[in-house]
Amino acid sequence: MNLLLSIAALVLTLIVLDTALRIFRRWKKSDEEERYELEKDFYLTFSAVVIVLGIRLFLVPLYFWTMQSLIPAIPGAMCLWGVFNALPELTWPALLLKFLLPAMYIGWLLLAQINSECKTNPLMRNLMALFLLLSPLLIIDSAVDILIFFRMNPVEVSCCSNAIDVGPRPIPMWIGTVSGQTLLILVFFALSTIFTASLILALRWRIFEQISLMLTLPLAGTLVIAITEILTPWLLHLPFHHCPFCLLFQNLSSLIFTSLFWFALATPWIILITKKLGRKTDEARGIELRLRNTTLTYSGIAMIIAMTIILVDLSIAMT
Amino acid sequence: MSIRTANLTKIYFKGLANEVVAVNDASIRIDDHTFFIVTGPSGSGKTTLLSLLGLLTRPTKGKIFYQNEEVSSYSDAWQTKIRKQQIGFIFQQYNLLPRFSAWENASLPLMCHNTSESERKKQATEIMHKLGLEKRIEFRVSLLSGGEQQRVAIARALVTNPKIIIADEPTASVDDETAASIREIFKTLKKEGKTIIVSTHDHALMKEGTTFAALKNGTVTNT
């Protein structure tokens, strides 16, 4: 299914590229009649792009699920870590794309929503421009998925315990100590709290929008370190195990809080896209602001839920 | 609902040898509750002007305003919304679906309003009673006479209670008796305060008009 959907997404992307380019080039110069013709083309293109982006978003969880199902077929693999290392030149870039691209896809879909709520299609050109910009990434995203399933072989790999737990990880040694772990968890919660506060305060003051954007990368880094160094060993009750994939697939709540964190961390970037491309007219600006506030509210709530889950999980694990 | 146009032009096959200027630089004003009559010989651009005013066709140049809001540049989706909510169309050739019954045809616009079938039938039946079609409700429209078909088409235009009625030669394809009954319907609509735009050659119907526009070769010669 993963393979079929990836092929469908790739083919659809290639089919609509030409129309998207034509709409982008002609829209500004067109008179009312040509605009109407372009608009009719746009509806078809729009539907195709929504399907492509929908497929790509649906493929994110499906990708992990499919890779998980390959564990028994890869000798030595105990979790996703092993499967990924059976074809590392493709699986790791694919993983990175799965985390980064959905934010852009959601950004495009929100822009499309703003455009459809406006009376005069003010964002038509920007939508096509963003799609043209996204299309190489969409093609790569789909092509990588397709290649993985054609080139994945049952080669022998080392399991996550051998690869991550033995030998030095790219983490300072002091983090492994009690004081190091305490400091890390404090920094993690402090950053998370500041980030959550900035998301909520951004509803009123614009400066916090910039602050939340700046905080996304340090918080994402801290989250990864916190997951590998603290949450995995504690929540799995395996003091020397640090594989995040083992945590994600053995502990349901970790899957939930990671997804919530992803959504919250993606929000400032999604807002950046809609802000830069979605404020062409006063009408669009009003709709963009409404959507922005809704997204910020939901991501603030997502952060609060995610932090609560972590706190509850940790307190249960420590008692 | 007032309608205004500014330098409205529609050219078919623009730039080609067979280019046709159907409407040329038309600036007209149709006030609220007006019975607006468009006259002119065949091929003068009456149907095109009506299509432009009803947002069924895009102008090549010029603008259309509804209540001083420029709607000609609206997206197709928004123009559809306006058509759905504000305008009822009556076409010269009825444009009915022959395999459907009279009430199903009359209630078609309500489907776009997500109205339930029972409610659609109720509303369509109500309007068909007013138009003297109570005995034809369940009939397939292909079995109805021309006059009855035209009245079903009128019922379809009125079923959503639109503010604007646009009718393209509504009495052209019917006999004198039916034409008289259709004129009566328009008189009633005029009394109800609808904005009515009609293209016609029917002198009796023209008498009902409050504002007029005469078209010749796409140009408005007299308003």
Structure description:
The complex is a heterodimer of chains A (319) and B (223). Chain A is mainly alpha-helical and 319 residues long. Helix content of chain A is 80%, strand content 0%. In chain A, helix 7 runs antiparallel to helix 8 and helix 10 (252-277) packs antiparallel against helix 11. Chain A is flat, with a radius of gyration of 22 Å. By secondary structure, chain B is an alpha/beta fold. In chain B, the strands form 2 sheets. Chain B has a 6-stranded mixed beta sheet with strand order 7-8-9-4-10-11, sandwiched between helices. In chain B, strands 1, 2, 3, 5 and 6 form a 5-stranded antiparallel beta sheet that branches. In chain B, a hairpin with a 2-residue loop joins strand 5 (61-66) and strand 6 (69-70). The longest helix of chain B is centred in the C-terminal third of the chain and has 16 residues, at 176-191. The model of chain B has no long low-confidence stretch (mean pLDDT 90). Classes of the chains: A mainly alpha (319), B alpha/beta (223). Chain A binds chain B through residues 31-33, 35-36, 39-40, 43, 116, 118-121, and chain B through 14, 58-61, 72-78.
